[in-house]
Amino acid sequence: MPRVVVDVMLKPEILDPQGQAVANALPRLGVSDVASVRIGRRIEIEFQGEPDLDRAREIADKLLANPVIEDFTVRLVEADETADARS
Amino acid sequence: MTARVGVVTFPGSLDDGDAARAVRIAGAEPVRLWHGDPDLHGVDAVVLPGGFSYGDYLRCGAIARFAPVMETIVDAAQGGLPVLGICNGFQILCEAHLLPGALTRNQHLHFRNRDQVLRIESAGTAWTNTFQPGQEVLVPVKNGEGCYVADTATLDQLEAEGRVVARYVGGNPNGSLRDIAAITNSAGNVVGIMPHPEHAVEALTGPSLDGLGFFTSVLKHLVGTPA
């Protein structure tokens, strides 16, 4: 059964101190060509029946993301693709 | 008649005991409210205390907003019930859209815990009417996600309408825009504050007694409000 994946990211104009901290650590790995790092959240939703993108959008808008500071995208992902993403 | 002030306990609330104690020291009767019970038990005002409701999962206050007690509080607040959200309570009020903006991770990523000077900017709210505008008070601040953000239009509107209730003085502990420590809704009955007035009500445990003014204010407000 496909899953709905919701990606939540801080809006570009909102400072992401966590991302900055990661970016600042990269030179210690010898990585010096990264301009910026932004950190978000990925949420996978499995419906009991057919995946419902509209319903997922409503869930994202009301609970998963705070539209004051965050943007979100909603998409369908096949189950095996989800497994791939984890490996 | 003694005013009855409700203090909500969510799973993960920490400062509900201190908030109830502050209510009692101010001269009111604290009434403990439970997150799962939508009944406000006839209280005259409500305090949403500090802590980490629902473990701060997802975002601070995001899940608490959907607690049964919050549905009743949102309706009652829109009808004029005085509500004070402290720290996590402020985060919950923003998530519940009773106050604009949001509270995000401290800019420097460190948890800040210190005594903090605030300047009271608005003495026109239900929770600050015993202060003088411009008065400085000393209360503890302790937060990891206390950085207040909102878009410029919202910030300008808050300033123009006198809805910035308090600002940090002598150093901004979290990067809050325009040094904002507390704001109110347009009616002045709902106030969110990041620092902790309930920890500054007794000489034994607090840096001052300045926090008591927030709780005596709501009693004064209630006396002036026809039942």
TrEMBL record, chain A:
Cellular component aspect of the GO annotation: cytoplasm
Source organism: Micromonospora orduensis
Summary of the function given for this chain in its UniProt record: Part of the phosphoribosylformylglycinamidine synthase complex involved in the purines biosynthetic pathway. Catalyzes the ATP-dependent conversion of formylglycinamide ribonucleotide (FGAR) and glutamine to yield formylglycinamidine ribonucleotide (FGAM) and glutamate. The FGAM synthase complex is composed of three subunits. PurQ produces an ammonia molecule by converting glutamine to glutamate. PurL transfers the ammonia molecule to FGAR to form FGAM in an ATP-dependent manner.
Chief site of localization: cytoplasm
Record carries keyword Cytoplasm: yes
HAMAP family, alphabetized: PurS
Alphabetized InterPro entries for the sequence: PurS, PurS-like_sf
Entry's Gene Ontology molecular function annotations: ATP binding; phosphoribosylformylglycinamidine synthase activity
Record family assignment: Belongs to the PurS family.
Keywords: ATP-binding, Cytoplasm, Ligase, Nucleotide-binding, Purine biosynthesis
Cytoplasm in keyword set: yes
Cell location: Cytoplasm
Protein name: Phosphoribosylformylglycinamidine synthase subunit PurS
UniProt superkingdom: Bacteria
Gene Ontology BP terms: 'de novo' IMP biosynthetic process
Pathway: Purine metabolism; IMP biosynthesis via de novo pathway; 5-amino-1-(5-phospho-D-ribosyl)imidazole from N(2)-formyl-N(1)-(5-phospho-D-ribosyl)glycinamide: step 1/2
Catalytic activity: N(2)-formyl-N(1)-(5-phospho-beta-D-ribosyl)glycinamide + L-glutamine + ATP + H2O = 2-formamido-N(1)-(5-O-phospho-beta-D-ribosyl)acetamidine + L-glutamate + ADP + phosphate + H(+)
Quaternary state and interactors: Part of the FGAM synthase complex composed of 1 PurL, 1 PurQ and 2 PurS subunits.
Automatic annotation (TrEMBL), chain B:
Active site, per annotation: 87, 196, 198
Name of this protein: Phosphoribosylformylglycinamidine synthase subunit PurQ
GO biological process entries: 'de novo' IMP biosynthetic process
CDD domains, sorted: GATase1_FGAR_AT
Entry EC no(s): 6.3.5.3, 3.5.1.2
Pathway in which this enzyme or protein is active: Purine metabolism; IMP biosynthesis via de novo pathway; 5-amino-1-(5-phospho-D-ribosyl)imidazole from N(2)-formyl-N(1)-(5-phospho-D-ribosyl)glycinamide: step 1/2
Keywords carried by this UniProt record: ATP-binding, Cytoplasm, Glutamine amidotransferase, Hydrolase, Ligase, Nucleotide-binding, Purine biosynthesis
Protein role: Part of the phosphoribosylformylglycinamidine synthase complex involved in the purines biosynthetic pathway. Catalyzes the ATP-dependent conversion of formylglycinamide ribonucleotide (FGAR) and glutamine to yield formylglycinamidine ribonucleotide (FGAM) and glutamate. The FGAM synthase complex is composed of three subunits. PurQ produces an ammonia molecule by converting glutamine to glutamate. PurL transfers the ammonia molecule to FGAR to form FGAM in an ATP-dependent manner.
InterPro entries in UniProt: Class_I_gatase-like, PRibForGlyAmidine_synth_PurQ
Keyword Protein biosynthesis: no
SUPFAM superfamilies assigned to the protein according to its UniProt record, in alphabetical order: Class I glutamine amidotransferase-like
One GO CC annotation: cytoplasm
Primary location group: cytoplasm
Compartments it resides in: Cytoplasm
Classification via Pfam families: GATase_5 (PF13507)
Gene Ontology molecular-function annotations: ATP binding; glutaminase activity; phosphoribosylformylglycinamidine synthase activity
Quaternary structure note: Part of the FGAM synthase complex composed of 1 PurL, 1 PurQ and 2 PurS subunits.
Catalytic activity as recorded in UniProt: L-glutamine + H2O = L-glutamate + NH4(+); N(2)-formyl-N(1)-(5-phospho-beta-D-ribosyl)glycinamide + L-glutamine + ATP + H2O = 2-formamido-N(1)-(5-O-phospho-beta-D-ribosyl)acetamidine + L-glutamate + ADP + phosphate + H(+)
